[in-house]
Amino acid sequence: MDEFILIFIQNHFHNGFTDLFFPFITVLGNAGLIWVVSGLCLICTKKYRFYGVMLLAALVLTHTLGEGILKPLVARPRPFAVYSGYHLLIAAPRGYSFPSGHAGAAFAAAFVLGKANRRLGIPAFALAFLIAFSRVFLFVHYPSDILAGAILGVLSAGFICLLFKKT
Fold first, then answer.
1. Do 156 and 61 touch, CB atoms closer than 8 A?
2. 167 pLDDT exceeds 70?
3. So which domain of life are we looking at (predicted)?
4. CATH numbers and ranges of domains, the chain
5. Measured between alpha carbons, how far is 153 from 81 in angstroms, rounded to an integer?
6. What is the average pLDDT across 125-137?
7. Within 13 A of 129's CA, how many CA atoms are on the CB side?
8. Which of 50, 74, 79, 128 could cross-link 106 (Cys pair, CB 3.0–4.6 Å)?
9. How many whole angstroms separate alpha carbon 94 and alpha carbon 91?
């Protein structure tokens, strides 16, 4: 199923607009930058400071579990390393494919932002979805990498929220 979805997207979703749009969207998720900035902005407000700390903690946990443990353990090559004949629209990322760090960070942050304020959560989840999809569109992740990253992010953020509520 992974291969079918991946190849279907490559063969049917590329056009002048998407080939410019999705590289831009994926850059927003590079190093979790937009989410780190979001967390820092929350910390700067008295009302949402607690959520800013939780957001940053969720990003750290997601990154540690995904990049530090799961990626080296699974060691799944990226799609562009497996399938030839497809042109990358971004620089080839280093490292393994599973799970997606972009999706993990995006969904961890969106989860916490949704807890902080529903009106923040809705656009955060929309952006998380776009960032996650961009990784498949750009041929650097399989759909299952995205799903695993999203689940990891939500579980990590949920754990952080529970942990912080008990302290």
1. yes
2. no
3. Bacteria
4. 2-166 (1.10.606.20)
5. 25
6. 98
7. 6
8. 128
9. 9
